[in-house]
Fold this protein.
Amino acid sequence: MNSKKILVIDDDINLCQLIKYTFMGLGAEVYTAINGQEGIRQFFNHRPDLVLLDIRMPIMDGWETCKEIRKLSHVPIIMLTTFHRDDEVVRGLNLGADDYVSKPFDSKVLIARTMAALRRAELPSETLKPISYNDNYLVVDLENRRVHVYGRPVKLSAREYDLLTLLLTNAGRVLTYEQILDRVWGWEYRDNTDYIHVYLSHLRRKIEKDPKNPRYLITEHGIGYRFEKPQDHH
C-alpha cells in the first residue's frame, strides 16, 4: 500500500485516528475529515486513491457525500456503516459505493476490503481484447469506453462498465453469479450476489428500451446472466 492515498471521512475522531495509524503503518498516506463537506474539500485537495466513508455524520451525511464524490470520480468508495439492513446496503451501492464494512469491524477485515478495492481499481482495462457492438439501437465501443443508446451517449460508472464489458465479451454465454463476482469484484465477493442484481438493474435502466422486459441483459434464474444480441430492434 506504499504511496497510496486514502481519505477517511467519519465524525468519530478516535476512529479516524485509529484507521489513519493502521494504514500509515502499511505505507499509505492518510487524510481525515469529520464531516462530508470537509471530506469533499479534502478530496479536491488530495485526490485520494480510495475513500472510507461513514454514513451518519452531521452537516453532510455519507449518502450525500458519496453522490458528490461520484460526480467527480470513479475512485473506490467503501462505506462504514452501523446499518445491518439489506436495503441500506443496497442504497449505498445504488449511490455508487463499491463496498461496505459494518461497524464495529476488525482492522484486518477493513484492510482486506481496502486492498481488494485498490487491486480492482488497478486492473488494466486491456485484459479483454477490444470489441464493439452496434445494432443501430445500442452501440458499445469497448476500446474507447463509449456507450450510446439511440445515438445518445450513456454515462456508466466504472463498475457498470466492467460488468457490461464482461457480459458483452461473453455474448450468448450464461455467466454464473460466482463467475461475474469473481471477474468484476474479486474472489472475496463470491457470496455477495446483491451486488450483481443492483448493478444489472442500473444497466438495464440505462440501455434497455424496456428494463422490465430486457432484450440484452437476460436473467437465467438461479444461475446468472447473459448478454443476448437481439436480431430485430424495430
Remarks:
- The first helix runs from residue 13 to 24.
